Every structure is written in structure tokens, then in C-alpha cells.
Amino acid sequence: MKIKLTVNGKVHEVQIDPGEMLLDVLRRLGYKSVRRSCDSASCGNCTVLVGGKPILSCITFAASVNNCSIETVEGLSNIKELHPIQEAILEAGGSQCGYCISGLTLTIKSFLSENPDPTEEEIKKALVGNLCRCTGYESQIKAVKLASKKLRGEKK
Amino acid sequence: MSEKRKFNHINKNEIKVDGPSILKGKPVYTDDFDFPNALHVVLVRSTYPHAKIKKINTEKAIKVPGVVEVLTHEDVPQKIFTRAGQGYPEPSPYDSFILSKKVRYVGDPVAIVAAETINAARTAANKVEVEYEKLEPVLDFKKATVEGAPVIHDEEGTKDIHDPKKNIASHYEMEVGNTDEVMNSCDYVVEKTYHINTQLHAMMEPHVSISYYDSNGRLVVITSTQVPFHARRILSMLFDIPVRNIRVIKPRIGGGFGGKQAVHVEPYVTAVTLKTGRPARMVLERPEVSMATNIRHEMEFRATVGASKDGTIKALSLDGLSNTGAYGEHALTVFMVAGSKTLPLYNKVEAVRFRGDVVYTNLPPAGAYRGYGAPQGLFALDCVIDELAVELGVDPLELKQKNAIKEGETSPIFKIMGEGTEGVEQVVRSCKLDECIEKGRDLINWDEKIKDKEKTGKKVRGIGCALAMQGSGIAKVDMGAASLKVNEDGSVNLHLGATDLGTGSDTIMAQIVAETLDIPVNKVIVYSSDTDMTPFDVGAYASSTTYVSGNAVMKAAENLKNKIKEKAACYLNTNPENIGIKNQQAINKENGEKISFSDLFTKLFYTFEQEQLMASSSFVGNESPPPYLATFAEVEVDLETGKVDIIKIISFADCGTPINPIQAKGQLEGATMQGLGWALYEVVKYDRRGRMLTNDFFTYKIPSRRDYKKMECYLVDSYEPTGPFGAKSIAEIGIDTPIPAIANAIYNATGIRLRETPFSSEKLLMEILKKEI
């Protein structure tokens, strides 16, 4: 079957198998930042934004997001510059192996757009569905606080 | 004595060199690479824990549209080997096959299926019919050596199995002095048994390998591994391909923690490429990662400590049993480290003994895992000393500190116990454990809280401490090498074998070169872990990268610096001794004349004394300087439910100079969280047939962001004279202390000693009810 996906502003008309998950379709289209880790909706690594809201692409049928607008991290930065959230993660040491980072970045983006000045508790709660095995989470909390400052223009 | 050293690029929080590409979502991990013609490889796996394979019928599987090959043990070399990624000859039993005629755990590979699509491969795998002759399994490691227990490794040709008929993979014993005699002379003797459960690595990226023939007919394997050079050697041996015709490349990988310090996937894709001539790709599914790669060695220790009434620990003994599962990779070495990286901490004893067996069971094979035996040994050692403190009526922190090793001291165990072999004598040149203890004691408010336990209704708080050491590489064994070459713009290419698994090693190596040559970090272009392009390195394990590979990089940079000075001297008409290097320039110290690196290197390419300036070096450590750690845990126990909440966990570590403090701290934080999960949340369960049930993230609970309240990790100022710019290591040690610190805190809160991990609420509640608190 054929579906239409707008990914980071680009329109894709793509032939899919009805049973295909969004994760595999996106990777087929070249969006390799979307990655499979647990394949059972329990780690958040595969998170993408659909209509600005985080969803788990490993258990979302591609057909169910036909005609939707999808964001992946490839759309956040351009050739030269990183998005402030990406900068903040790097500056705070929030990325070690990096495998959880694509999903985490998008969840952070969606969260900060709704809560631009969150407390530590609110950060932990919002990101609880994004597991990370490397960092122990502390540096990522700092990253979110730093990102929120950058987005509010308080820090470069 | 703490010294503040001034560095330009060391002890600086440089952004990771691979950071931007990862954040941008670039295709940098193994499965991100497209190979349109690649076959998808899937394994058929045993559903029984112990059985002989009588017949494999592949007819139906072959008929599935899109299936190209189905390989059984008859189609692959029957070479016996160890999967362990260790130096050759490996100190692990040779007891494994690519595909065996017998299965030894639920998940053991039985057949290899290769197909045009992943769905065809999976469909076909389900259609492979295997006839088994079921055998009695051993599912409890305490029953492995019992009379009449089924023999797990009865095949021909095994090597270095201590006693296969009794399922003993390895055995080790050592003694200094006469332990029994000294114990008998002690005023206080405490003997307790501790059991530490297994653990899953749960790294975020599943294991994946891709193999193919390049245009010159050489086998290339791109793989998510911690040990590319060992992988190359093992593939060469298994398939009789000369090493020169194999190239192994490690791109970015998504974590390992020891779970990728073995060849788990590479032989299967290689078998398919060799048979078909086509590229082959295999990505493990999460349940396979959990149950069919490696897990943590479950261990039990009877720990005995003897002391005089003034609190001097005079004798220590650890008697252990380790569960290595179905195959023996890392069996002996992990067990030895349970003693070699714990007992030297209390070096003032008159006698010390460490011994035990590592046994086979029909459970998933255990292997390398961060800490590598030290956390298991330390649970027993630290807690038995904590219990001794109660007998003596003294503060456990004071007791441990008083007896702990100090800078300038040594322990006979350094010489006796290496990893799989004898060790190396060494004196502790840097040890800031006292400072770690003082700072931690202060921050958690130890002196006050150890006396007054906070109780609010049915919730009670308590604090506990634990001290640890580890190592920095395996002395006289682990080797790393690096090479450098210059470019016209004053930059250098750094090629090194050392393996970055997210640890940031590429970045710190760039910092080491930058510091030595006084050039910006962004002028060091790092390329690592490619057996064709980079010099040898044992790989990422034993906390060796910063110390061993870092020293190689530093020496290579120093060699290059000397060559730069020579050429600059030639150009500036003086002697090399008069040349100073500063800020990307070579300066004649006598008259101030100078030339920039970019100018000099350009001239050296085209017009002046033409030469490609290059330098290289290898390094193998003569010692393995331990990092040190003091961890303090504050817990809150709900007496009505037995639930343990972590209020605070604080760690202070001495890792020598942190090359990149944020990255070093990140290692400590990550390891602490992993230890916390192991203590409280991570439980592996099997069904009655030995099938791992907890093989995904729903059932196996690694800590989430809300599973702790406060975690604070700090590094104290220290300098290791034999390390690159004073660095030691940090990657593993953090996971050693959370279990004992939390156990000790639970005791402080409730008076209950939990000597079995995990410290579940059910377990604790039962004890609370028994004690009627």
C-alpha cells in the first residue's frame, strides 16, 4: 500500500507493507537516526515526533500515520549548526554511546515546548520513558536545564 | 599531597569528537550502513537446556521463498575455541563451537539461516526441524559438581577445562601466610556467606555484524565489538583464513559494558559470506541479546575476617563458587579478579587466602561485565568487614579506613594474582582514598547520621559505606599502539587501535596529542579500531584504554614532537635542543626566530627536506595502578512494605588526572547507576527449563530516571606518575560499591543484614517481620 509521510518538512510517497512499523519505513527512507533497541515499547530509543508529540516508532504502524507530519533529529540541525538542545547535551556530557540520544532529543524538544522552565522532578518525570544505560541520567538532567536556558535566550 | 598541574588540553571538558555526528543522527552505527545485496542472517536456537542434536531437517526451511542457505554443524568448521576477547593464548577454556552437535542452554545456536529478507529468514528459521535427545540439565550452580550430575562438556578436544567430568571449568587457589593459624589467633572472627546474582548488560544497541568480500576478495567485517583485533584473530583461526585477508572495523557502537568483549555474531555472518560470496548482516533481537550472548557471573562467597581487638584486620579468606553458565569464556579470569582487585585493599593482614571453583551450568554463558569479578568479591569482602565493625563496636567507616592500603604501600597479592596468570609486583604510587573518604563522610554527614537514625512513622533511614579499588589494564599483558602523521595545515592524523564504545576514548586521545604538541584539539583527527588502518590494541576492557592506549598515544606524540624539532632546527639553522614548541609554532629559543607548524609541514611536503613526518609507539604497562573509590549510600526503608528507596548515593573517586572531567565523571555516574540497578531492581529469572524469562526491558528493570533521588559523583585531585599526564582509569570501579554500600545502609536502618542480591522488598519485608521491628 502507498502512504504519504512528511518528514522534517519533506514529503515522501512510499510503498509499504501494511504490517510495517514506522521505524523501518523511516530507516528505509534514509532516516537512520531512528533506531531499534528493545523493539517492545519499553526503552524510548525509537522515539519520533508525530504532530509534535513523542511516539514510539517501533510499535507504530506506518500506515497509522499516513498523511502525518513527522520529526526526526535529522531535521533539527543544518550543515553548520546544532540545535540548542543538541549543543546542551554535548556541553553537559549527556551523550556517551549516543544510542538513546535521538529519541531523547526529540522527547526533550517536545517537553520544553510545553514546559520551558522545568524543575528537576518534572524533567525526570517527562523523560522517564527514555532509558539510558551509559550516563546514569545526571548529565542529561543538566543538559535539559541548560537547553531550557538556551531556548529562553538566557544562555548561548 | 595534592598538586594542581596546569594543562592546556588535559583536565578540560572538550566536546566529544564524535559528538556532533551522533547528535545530528548521522548513520554511524553498524546497522546504519546500507548493503543492498546483503543476506539477512537469523539463528535457529535450542529450546532445551541440555540435549544432543540427533537430526536437523532443513527441507521445509530451504523451500521458503527468499531463503538462500541453511547451515548446520555439518556445514561449518568444527574448530574448538573460546568466544572470549582476550590476548592469545586466551586464559579461558576452549569449549565452544560455531555450531555444536550438542546444545547446552536454551538459546544455544543450532542452525544459521540466510535469506533475502529478514521476514523470510525468520519464517525459515521457524521451519527448521530439530530432533533432540534430551539430557538432564544442571540449573543450579551449587549442584553442578554433585555426584551423578550430568556432564555438560563431554566432547573431544576441549582445552583447559579444569575437570570436565565434575563440570568444573576453572579452579583457583592462593594463600599468603597460614590463614587458619592466624584466624585462630584473632580476638574476633566473623564468617558469613554472600550470594550475588547475575546481571544483564542491557546496552542500548543490540549486537550486530556485517560481513562481505571487498573488491580484492578480502573478508571485511563491520561489527559492534569491544575487541576488533581479537575478533580478527579468532575469525582467522576458525575459518582458516590468514589474518592478512581479514579486516575488522568497529564504527560507533551503542554500549558494551563487557557484553561485546567476545565474538557473538561475527562467526555467523562470516560463515554465510564464505558460503555465498555475498554480504551478510545479522542484528540480534533484544531477547537474544539478553539470553544468548553473555551475562554476569553469579557468585557465592564464604568470607572470613579475623581481627585483633584494637581493630587491626589480621586475616582474610574468600572461598568462592562462580557460575559460568554453558560455556567458559572469561571463567577463570573473572573469578580471579574477585580476589585480585579486592583483597589488596586490606593489605595489612598477616595472612590471606582466595580460592574456589568456576562451574558450568545449563544456563546462558557468563562473560565479561564491568567490574569483572571485583563487584562480586567486594560484596563479600566489604560486608564481612562491615559486620566485623558491629562485633567490635566501632564505626565501620573508621575500621575500613584504618586497615585500607595507603600510598607508597604494596600487597603480595599484586604479584601472585594477575588475570588468568601470575600478576606483577607493584607499589601504589597514587592513592587518595583517604581524601575520598573524608570528603564523602563530610558530604553525607556520616558522623551524625551513623548515630541518629531518622525515623518518620513507619519509614526509617540509614547510611552505609563501601571502599573499592580496581586496576588500569593488565600489567605486562595489555598492549596498545598509536601512529601519527602531519598535514599541511598543521593538523595531525591519529590512528589507534583503542576502542571507543561511547566511553569517549577517541576524544581523550585527541586531548593527549593536543597537549603534547600544543595544538588545538580540533586539529587532531582521530581514526580508531580498524585492523587495516590502525595499529594493534587489545581493545576496551580491564579499564586499560586511558592508561595503556593513552600512554602509547602520548609516547607517539612525543616521538613526533622530537621529529618536528629536528626539522624545525634544520630550517632555522640551529640545533634541536634550542627549539621550543608553543602554540602551533617551533621557536628558536636563542634568537626568537620561528616557523608555524602549517608552514613547516607544507614545506616538508613539497620544497624543503621533503619528508612525511610520522611517528608511532606501543605501550604495555609494567604496573596496573588502581583507581580508588569511596561510596556512601543513604536509604529509606518502609517497614510496612520492605521497599528500599535510595535517598542519596555519593561517590568520591581517585582516577589520577581526569583527561576529560565530564567524561570521567560520566563513567563513574553510569557505573554507579548500573550498580544501583543490580542491587535493587535487576533480576534475571528462568523458567523451570532454564529459559530466561526476563529478556526484555519490560521484565528486566534497569533503573529509570525516577528510581533514585540523588546521585552525586566527584573526582578528587590526584596524579599517577606512570600514567599519561597522571591518569589512571575510571570506567569500571563505580559499579563495585553500590551493592555493599546499600547492604550496609539497610543494616544501619533496620538491623537486618541482607546477604543475597537483589535487595528486594519481599526479601527485606520477610526479615522485618521475623524481627518484628
What percent of residues of chain A adopt helix (DSSP H or I)?
25-40%
Helix/sheet category of chain A: alpha+beta
The percent range for strand residues of chain A is 5-15%
Structural class of chain B: alpha+beta
Strand element count of chain B: 27
Secondary-structure blueprint:
The complex is a heterodimer of chains A (156) and B (773).
Chain A: E1 2-7, E2 10-15, H1 22-28, E3 47-50, E4 53-56, E5 69-71, H2 84-91, H3 101-114, H4 120-126, H5 138-151
Parallel strand pairs in A: 1-5
Antiparallel strand pairs in A: 1-2, 3-4, 3-5
Helix pairs in contact in A: 2-5
Chain B: H1 19-23, E1 39-45, E2 51-57, H2 59-62, E3 67-71, E4 102-103, E5 109-115, H3 118-126, E6 129-134, E7 168-176, H4 179-184, E8 188-196, E9 208-213, E10 219-223, H5 228-239, E11 246-249, H6 266-276, E12 280-283, H7 286-291, E13 298-307, E14 313-325, H8 331-340, E15 351-360, H9 374-392, H10 396-403, H11 412-416, H12 433-444, H13 446-449, E16 455-456, E17 459-469, E18 479-486, E19 492-496, H14 505-517, E20 524-528, H15 545-571, E21 579-582, E22 585-588, E23 594-596, H16 597-606, E24 614-620, E25 628-638, E26 644-654, H17 661-680, E27 710-715, H18 738-750, H19 761-771
